[in-house]
């Protein structure tokens, strides 16, 4: 792997085991089979949704953005607050909120679609 990814294993040790998989020039960060983080361009991003994005905004985080066809595309992963890498309690808190967002996203995808009225 690389040093940064190895360090993330330490950072999230109190949260639980993580697994990192290479993807698109970065790394997907997984816990219990769900991607809750993204490591790209030397920066850690965590999963957001409507329930937790305000916490990330309040912490001064920014969304992961890339260019596609000369237009910026923002993903539902926001930069992790600096404290995540230094304070294990903060790492657990932010990892948990990101993992919960991943769980909600998965649950929404699994809901059966309502039958259309005939």
Secondary structure layout plus pairing:
Elements (H helix, E strand, L loop, with lengths): L2 H9 L7 E5 L2 E6 L2 E7 L2 E5 L5 H6 L4 E6 L2 E9 L3 H4 L1 H23 L8
Antiparallel strand pairs: 1-2, 2-3, 3-4, 4-6, 5-6
Your description of this structure?
This protein is of the alpha+beta class. It has a single domain (3-106), classed as Yope Regulator, Chain: A. The protein has helices at residues 3-11, 53-58, 83-86, 88-110; strands spanning 19-23, 26-31, 34-40, 43-47, 63-68, 71-79. A 6-stranded antiparallel sheet has the order 1-2-3-4-6-5. A hairpin with a 2-residue loop joins strand 2 (26-31) and strand 3 (34-40). The longest helix has 23 residues, at 88-110. The mean pLDDT is 92.
Concise summary:
Helix content is 36%, strand content 32%.
- Count all strands and give the number: 6
Rg computed from alpha carbons, rounded to a whole number of angstroms:
15 Å
| Main beta sheet | 6 strands, antiparallel
**What is the approximate shape?**
globular
Order of helices and strands: HEEEEHEEHH
Number of helices: 4
CATH fold label? Yope Regulator, Chain: A
Please tell me the CATH architecture by its name: 2-Layer Sandwich
- Determine the fraction of residues in helical runs and give it as a percent range: 25-40%
What is the end-to-end distance?
54 Å
* CATH C-level name: Alpha Beta
Spatial order of strands in the largest sheet = 1-2-3-4-6-5
Q: Poorly predicted ranges (pLDDT <50, ≥5 residues)?
A: none
Determine the strand fraction and express it as a percent band.
25-35%
Tell me the number of structural domains.
1
Class inferred from helices and paired strands: alpha+beta
**Mean pLDDT over the full residue set:** 92
Q: What name goes with the CATH superfamily?
A: YgaC/TfoX-N like chaperone
């Amino acid at each position: 792997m690389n040093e940064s990814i190895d360090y993330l294993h330490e950072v999230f040790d109190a949260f639980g085991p993580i697994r990192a998989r290479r993807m698109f020039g970065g790394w997907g960060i997984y816990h219990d089979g769900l991607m809750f983080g993204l490591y790209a361009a030397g920066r850690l991003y965590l999963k957001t949704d409507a329930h937790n994005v305000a916490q990330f905004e309040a912490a001064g985080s920014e969304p992961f953005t890339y260019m596609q066809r000369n237009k910026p595309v923002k993903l539902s992963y926001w930069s992790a607050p600096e404290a995540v890498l230094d304070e294990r309690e903060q790492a657990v808190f932010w990892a948990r909120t990101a993992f919960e967002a991943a769980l909600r996203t998965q649950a929404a995808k699994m809901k059966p679609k309502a039958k259309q009225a005939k």
